[in-house]
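Reviewer 2 asked us to include a model.

Predict the structure of this chain.
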Amino acid sequence: MDTKEKDNVISTISDLLKSILHKVSNVIKKTAKYFSDNRKTAIQVIFGLLTLSLAFLFFSHEREEILNIPTYVYVANKYWMIAGVAISVIYVLLQSLLYVYSFKTVREKISFGSAVLLFLKRNFISVFIPAGGFTSLGFFSNEISGNNISKTKIHFASVIYAFTGLLTVVIAAVPILVYLLIKQNLSSNELSAFALLVLLIAVIAWSIYSLLNEGVIAKITLRFFPDFNIILEELKSLKFDKSSFINTIIVSTLIEISGIAGLWIALRAVGLDASLEVACVGYIVTVLILVISPFLRGVGPIDASVALVLFQYGYDKSAAIAAMLIYRLFEFWLPLFYGLLSFIKSRNNFILRIAPPLFILLLGFVNIISAVTPAIPERLRALKNFLPLDAIHFSNYFVLIAGLFLVLTSVFLFRGLRSAWWIAVALSVISVIGNLGKAFDYEEATAACITLFVLLYTHKNYYIKSDFRTGYSGLNVFAISFGAAILFGVTGFYFLDKKHFGVEFNLLESVINVARAFFLLDTSSLHPQTHFARDFLYALYFAGGVSILFGLYSFLKPIVHHYQHDKEEIYHAKLLIEKYGRSPLDHYKTYYDKIFYFSQVHEAFVSYAVSGNFAVVLETPVCLNTEVAADVIKEFDGYCRDYGLKNCYYRVDEEMLPLFYKQNKKSLLIGQEAVVDLVTFTTEGKSNKSLRNAVNKAEKEGVLFKVYQPPLKDNLIQQLKSVSDEWLADGKKETIFSNGVFMEEELKNQTVFTAENAESKIYAFINQIPCYSKGEATYDMIRKKNDAPGVVLDFMMIRMFEYFKSKGFQKVNLGLAPMSGIEEQKDFPHRTVKFAYERIKSFSHFHGLRSFKEKFSPQWLNKYLVYSNSYDLLTIPAALSKVEKNV
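Predicted model (structure tokens):
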């Protein structure tokens, strides 16, 4: 390579490095700018990474302790172990009762069950966040706020809970520390921790006093956070229940006693002579270190300190360590485990919804890896004493095939298919037997047992039916494929020349070898000698593999629901709407895209559309009252389950939510509906100047407002169609389900409002549709031409309001402003919707829709999506999109 070529190469590499550095620099700048603009997000990301790092550190640090716990539990006295488990349960119940009385202190009531969940979840998360004993008190408040308790009271009750816990520790520690000082058996670290604890209590008490009496803390807080004044006023108005506060002290003292009892029982469990002094000292040391520990709830320092206390009292080191580990089991690990269970307490939990498919997928990979890796020789030799070698080889191949099918089944299990669940259960059982039978691989068999347990526990989540018509077709294809393979393979093996496999096959051997190859079983006895022989064998493998996979897919394929409209059903539904309708959306419930479910018990029906395996219901049932609606919702759930459908309810009113909550359904605020009060609506006043200007400008430009009563003439319909076509040509699309579409036959029988010029050229139109809400009017389409005056829509709306008012209507419904009005981001789904509305460009047109309706000073009514499982939120948007585009 000459000098010039070297220079070119160096120059190219230099340019490439500069380009990469430039791109990296841009990414860093954009990331920095994003985090500077979104400080809250930055803090959450950093906090999340820190939490994950600490969690990793925690489990890494405690790996040895976790592994040793079963050994010590196994050799310990079982009766004392049972007593220790009972103490851990009592500890949890007392902590929960402490929450109950803490809330009663601020004159609020929470159920004992809610208090249990609150403690378990906060206790669990406290391990993985800095200063978790205190910072965890800010978590899971939304679960309590559902009881109509203000956030201020929730946080203050949590402060009382923490303060009482610290106070009783001091009360319990003082006599013990005095006793140890007299015996000169107290280290400087323990004394420092106690002093810090007393100081901490004093600071908390002084801070509360300062806040409530507008002292230094209140002034500093208000200086930097002026909005805190609202919270401060609420705090000052709080009335405390002194008797409940005394109860918190009593309960908290009992918690200290249960802690002491836990260590005493742990000592007895390993056969040591337990004394009250040792138990008290060990417990107080535990709590003192817990208070001052900034990370991981004192894990490590607490273990070492308790063990050291036991050493100082002359206990054997190995026995002392065993007692310490069992004590930590009662005091730390069991409550932590209970906390984990609290997150998955419901079979409809999101975690439990995605866990089985993931477990099945992982088990599939475990089986495949286990089958293709060598067995442990010692186990294999031991197993040969019980099973013949052929059975061991058969088990190995069975595990391999089960692994391949498990990977495929996991995909369909994500979709909630019942047949996939049955296949997963069968494959898990096969995995247990196969892993034990191939080399006594009890680790893999244990994983299969855990997977089987998870499947059985969550069986109610899998009810979507498979299309058995397709399954029978698949079975036919499989049978034909197998017959063809037998014919092809037997003929081949029987007539193949000896040179290809080095042996001549008789008829029975030919059938056996074809079956082995087709079902992907052991064919190690076959030794292809030529390329043709190898290709022949591969062809059998391929035919068998494809046939088996196609047969499995055929049985797993979800059923596709097809429905035909019945004129009698439409007529019946319209009669019920005339009788019981009370919603602006009732008009759309008999549209051609809807399916009807008529109650078997009540005079009622549900209007829905199907997308895949989702029944998307428009609003709520049409029926007599809310009591009937509750029955129909439950009845429709049963109908959907019988037909393998999930369901969700779209645009549900806020006052109807309790009906769904009683049936363990969830809700998501999806937007607000605008309703204008015609009685108070006016264009007068400074705030409505823009509306007056719009009307004046439109009239100056010669725009006329006209009302056409049904039946409309054909030439008018054609003009309206021209406006609609031009509106659609501008990149807009018609949506249905909760909206109407341009249908000439329907439009002929509706009142239409137009804005047009003196030559009767229509600029824009609005069509009135029936509204079954008493005293309320509503409209459907609002469409205009591109050359219409800019103020034409405002002009039409105001004139339409005047018309409705003249006809005796008190309100007019302007429809939904999607994704708007979400102020309180109470959970992740709400935060996601709010983020999409505010930050994602493709949703920006919803801002314009909200602004247009906001001009008329409407009342905003919350509208909700109701669903059964958090997991469903992954697929509901696609289902909604499909039913809305089914034009």
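The chain has a mean pLDDT of 76. The longest strand covers residues 666-677. We have added this to the supplementary material.
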